[in-house]
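Record 1 of the preview.
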Amino acid sequence: MSKKKRTAAAAKANHSGGLIEQARQIAEGAFQDFQKRLPQDLVRQLEKSLGQGQKTIQSNVKRIQEEVQRTARQTDVDKLTKRIDGLAKQVQQLEKALGNAARGAASAARGATAATAPTRGSTTRRPAARKATAKSSGAKASTNKSTTTRRTRTKPAPPPGEETSGPTP
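->
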């Protein structure tokens, strides 16, 4: 049967692992030797001081974490406030633009109605009026464009027995 050959990398891993293990054992031995040489009252005093120091550090870390969270919340609120202010400005700009557009449309509409509205005494013929007169008379519509049809308002007939002044239309 053949033996497995070790690669160089595996040999280095075992060798370095052995070095770390040896260093750990040496450190533990030195620490135990140091503990034996210290007086017990000094060891107790150091343990008490270390315990109090750990509590102080933990409370300070907790307080700092709370401050960081509070600061984070405040920065979030500040960011939201800035965003809301920006949106409010955008809404105001839209309102101005819409107001200007509405005013422009209203003035354009007024200008268009003034330009297309007939004036008094105008002889322009409306197509609806021409169709109505052609249908009511039963005659064909005239193709002569110079002829205009005007509607006049008739006065109500006077009661019988009263004479009118002038011809009746």
